[in-house]
Amino acid sequence: MASLKALKIRIGSVKSTQKITKAMKMVAAAKLRRAQEAAEAGRPYAQRLEAVVASLASKISVSESSPKLLAGTGKDQVHLLVIATSDKGLAGAFNTNIARLARRHAQELLAQGKTVKIYTIGRKGRAVLNRQFPKNIIHSIEPGDLGKLSFADARGYADDLIARFEAGEFDVATLFYSTFKSVLAQEPTAQQIIPVAIPQAETAAVSSGAAVTYEPDEESILADLLPRNVAIQLFRAMRENAASEQGSKMTAMDNATRNAGDLIKRLNTIYNRQRQAAITTELVEIISGAEAL
Amino acid sequence: MSLHFELVTPEKLLRSEEVHMVVVPGTEGDFGVLEGHAPLMSTIRDGNLEIYKAGATTPETIRIEGGFAEVNEKGLTVLAEKAG
Question: What value of ipTM does the predicted structure carry?
Answer without folding.
Answer: 0.79
